[in-house]
Amino acid sequence: YPDTSYATLGVTDGKPRARGTQKFTSREDDDEACGLDEIPRPEHVHIPMNLKRGTLQTHSLTVIPCTKERRPDIHYGILTGSFNMYDNKYGQRSRGRQALTMSVMAYCLAFHYHPKQWTMKLIDNLVDAGDVWYMQCLDKVHDHSAVQGICEVLHFGKKQILVLNGKRMQVLLCEPDIVGYTMSLDPTVYNLCRGLKAFFKENRAGVLLTRVLKLVIWKDRVCYYIFDPAGRDSRAYSNFANGQAALMNVKDVVSVAEVLLARSILEDQKFVLAPVKVLKMADEKSEEDFESDKELTQAEKAMMGYRILNENCAIVNANMHLGDRCFEEAKFRQALPISIVAMTYAKISPPNTWFSKTLDKILRLGNKLYIDCTHPKVMIDITIDNIPNEIVIGPYACEIIIYRERVKGQLYTTKECLLNIKTGLEEFFSHEYNCGILEFNNYTLAVWRQKDMFYLFDAYPRTTDGLRVMKGGKACCLMLLNPETMADAFIKNWDYLPATTQFYIHAFKVLKLKKIEPKMQIVCTLSDEELPGSKKKGKSVPCMGMSNAHGDSREIYHDVMPVEVVLDRTDKPPGNNLSHTCKTLSSIYLYIWTARLVRWLGNWLPRNG
Q: Does the pTM exceed 0.70?
C-alpha cells in the first residue's frame, strides 16, 4: 500500500464517492479511513474501431518548430526563367493573377518533362502558357467574385480539361485538405510545418494558397519540388520586382517549410493546402471523352430542360440573367448581342434540345460579343450599327446580316392603320423572315421560327414561369406554338408600358457558318524549335556543370541549364564553317581586284599609243 490514502468527506457509510469529494490523507490516519479498496479505479478510454489512424494524434508545435529563422544546413537547388508573372507584357486582366493556373500547369508539365530536363526556356514557355490558360478559364467563369478570392478561376472540386503539348489532361483541384495558420501557437491548429508533414503523408502534390503566396509543391521518390511563378532570386528569396519564375528542389518537408517561411513573403496568416491530381491523360485526337459525366436521369433532364407551362408554351430557364454580377460593368447592356448569339446558336444546336447550361453559355458568349463590339475603355449601349458583319461564336466564324426595321408599330395601339405587337409579329413571320430582333423602349428580345415552332429568348430576370421579377430571376427561352401565343407571353411581362410605345422588328439572317480551328493552342516545350510558326535559332544543349551558378552547390539534382550553340544546317564543326567562309571571301576580293585591273588597263593603253 502507498504511504497515503483517501478519506471521504462528510460520509460515514463507507461507500465509494467521486474523486472530487475525497481528501488526501497520510497513512498515519489509516485507522480512521474506510473503504479504501472499494474506491473505483479509472476506466480505460474506449476508442471506436472505425476511427482513422492518426485522428487523435496531437499537433504539438514541439514536433517541428515553425519559425522564420534561416537555417544554413538546408540543401536546395534552383532553376529560374527570364521573367515572372508580373511582367509588363501581360495584360491588366491577367498580370499578377495567374499564379494558380501557372502552378497547376507546372505540375501537369512534369508529366511531359521530368524536372531534371527543365531549362530556362521551358520555364519561360510555362509562364506564357499559364497566362494563356488563365485567360481561357477567365472567359468561362460564371461568377467573377470568385476571381477576387483564394480560388480564382480554378474552382475547388471541379475537373478541368487542359490541352497541353498535344495531350488532353483531366486535372482536379481537390477541396482543401489542410487549413491553418503559418506560425500558429495553438496545438489544435495546424501550423505550416505540421500541415505540410500531415498533407504529404496522404498526397503527392498540392497547391499552397495564402493571401500573397500561391505556388505548387510535389514530390517524387527522391526529393520535393516547388514552383513559384511570382519570382525568386538566385538564393530562392521572393523577389516580385526583379526575380524570375523558379523551380526549386529540396530534400524533405523540413526544407520545404524553411524555403516557404524564411525565404518567402509569408507572415503569420491563414494558409490552405489543396491536393492537385491528374486523373486522365490521352492524345488530343483520342476518342476518349473526358468531359462526359454520368448520364442524366429522366427527372434530371426534366429539371434542366424544357418544362411545359400549358398546351401552347414550354420554358427553360438559365442559372443567371444578363444583369448577373459576373458580367461586371457590362451587365444589362448586352441584350442585343445576347439576342444575336441566341439566334446564331440556334443554327448550331437545335433550340428544342437546349438545357439550362446552354442558356448560360449563350449569355456568356453574348457578353463576350458585347465586349468585342465596344471600345475597350468605354462601356456604352451598343446599337445595330455597332454589330459587325462577321462575328465569332465560340469555335464558329459567322457571317450575318441585319435588315433594319422590317416591321414597326406601337405595342398596344388599337388603331387599324398601325401595327401592334400581335399583328406585328404575325406580319413579320408571314414573310420570308425567320429570325428577328424585337427592339422597344431600350429593351431587346430575340424571336425566331424553327421547324414549325416559335422561340422567344428573354435575357432579363424571369421566374420559372417566365414572368417578370425584381430579384432572383433567371433568363429564359420560351417555346411557343404560334405568333399569337408569343404575343401573349410578351404582354404578360411588358403590359406596364404605354400603349404608344414604339417597337421595331429587325430581320436577322445567318449567311455563313464555319467552324474554325482553335486560335491559340497551349504549347510548352523545351525550346522554340517545337513552337508553331517559330524559326530555328539553335540547339539547347544540356550542361550539367552550370548548376553551381544557382543554389548552394549541394543540390539534390543538378539543374539543367540551356547553352545556346548555333550550328550550321549540315552540323559541321565551327572550324570548317569558318574556313569555307574565308575561301568564299577571298574569291570575291580576287574577282573585284581583277575587274579593277582590267578597267585600269583599258584606260591606260589608249593614252600611251
A: no
